[in-house]
Design goal:
It contains 9 helices and 6 strands. The protein has 271 residues and is α/β, with parallel strands linked by helices. Strands 3-4-2-1-5-6 form a 6-stranded parallel beta sheet, with helices on both faces. The longest helix has 24 residues. It is globular, with a radius of gyration of 21 Å.
């Protein structure tokens, strides 16, 4: 960890945290680039450009506090299919520029970059730049930054089922023997833990087809702040909120009275 590199404002928030209770994996839906630009009477592409700056600033703060996994929803399958082609082309150029400009900063911060999604459908020159950045940072041991690109939660599950069916056919596995772990092994995220905390910017109360399987028990934090205005201190504030919550995973909380062992003897009254 490099706590000494935090800004004074970030350090003030960090000092309220319990380091032993940091989330292992934070996932973020980066929303609001277009609205950020629109409110300033700017072109949408300038919002995306400012959002790319937020990516690096937030990632570096995550690295300084020793957050193991950070996964960002950068470009959805729906974005690729439904956005104007000129905007999609700009986003692809922006991704290439981001990787070229920030790979040295990733090296300096011991950040490793990976990707999830149907990245094989992206332009070849973009894939080449992605592989280049991944190879350069592969030996880094700090925060793993994962960009979800051409990603959709439902398509991920479809791809996982296809992979599992192929494995079942090859190994003659009966459907009755399929477990949740079998499906997990075929997800794009099989190599990482499920998110503990899901952050969404821009105040929208939806998860937008993001990590549908993985966020089953994630804590959700929504902020009105648009993504281009989101900074490392806002990540720390979200983690502070996360630490104030009690995670039960379907069980009972610590403050619940012991279960009455004679509950099965009580009659149920129906009015």
């Amino acid at each position: 960890m490099r706590i000494h590199e935090l800004t004074r404002e970030e350090r003030a928030v960090y000092d309220t945290l319990k380091p032993e209770r940091l989330p292992e994996h934070v996932a973020i839906i980066m929303d609001g680039n277009g609205r950020w630009a629109g409110r300033r009477l700017l072109k949408r592409f300038l919002g995306h450009q400012q959002g790319a700056k937020s990516v690096q600033l937030v990632t570096e703060t995550a690295s300084r506090i020793g957050l193991p996994w950070l996964t960002l929803y950068a470009f959805s399958l729906e974005n690729n299919l439904r956005r104007p082609r000129a905007e999609v082309n700009f986003l692809m150029r922006l991704l290439k520029s981001y990787l070229e400009s920030n790979v040295q900063r990733m090296m300096d911060s011991n950040i490793r970059i990976r990707y999830i999604g149907r990245v094989h459908e992206l332009p070849t020159e973009v894939q080449d730049k992605m592989h280049w950045a991944a190879e350069i940072t592969a030996r880094n041991t700090g925060t793993t930054l994962t960009l979800a690109l051409n990603y959709g939660g439902r398509s991920e599950i479809v791809d996982a089922v296809r992979g599992l069916l192929a494995e079942m056919k090859q190994k003659h596995i009966a459907p009755s023997h399929i477990t949740e772990q079998d499906i997990h092994r075929h997800l794009y995220t099989a190599h990482m833990p499920d998110p503990d905390l899901l952050i969404r910017t821009s105040g929208e109360m939806r998860i937008s087809n993001y990590l549908l399987w993985q966020i089953a028990y994630a804590e959700i934090y929504v902020t009105e702040r648009l993504w281009p205005d989101f900074r490392g201190i806002n990540l720390l504030e979200a983690i502070a909120d996360f630490q104030r919550r009690e995670r039960r995973f379907g069980g009972l909380g610590d403050n619940v009275l012991p279960t009455d062992e004679e509950a099965d003897r009580y009659k149920i009254a129906v009015s």
